[in-house]
Amino acid sequence: MFRYMVSFSYQAPTGIGFASTEVTFRRKLRSMEDVTRVGNDIRSEGYVNAIVLGFSLFADPPAPSGGKN
Question: Domain-by-domain residue ranges, the chain?
């Protein structure tokens, strides 16, 4: 499984909104079709006119926690 942080904009009641979410896929995002599918999924969650601005693959396995780099 591949985990991504996805940033997007959407139409908010007061103008434009920005948000991000974590999404998981069985394969890597490889095409604009994949990104379009992510945008469609975000819109199906109620974000009006959501547009994917960018995405980043999380490290696998997750980095250790504890505040130390």
Answer: 2-57
pLDDT tens per residue, range 29-44: 999 999 999 999 999 9
Provide the token pair at 41: 């999924």
pTM of full prediction above 0.90: no
Reported as a single tens digit per residue, the pLDDT across 2-57 is 999 999 999 999 999 999 999 988 889 999 999 999 999 999 999 999 999 999 99
Token pair 């980043």 is at which residue? 56
The owner of tokens 């394969």 is 27
> Which CATH fold would you assign to the domain 2-57?
Ubiquitin-like (UB roll) (3.10.20)
Distances (CA, A) of 62 to 2, 26, 45, 59: 11, 17, 26, 5
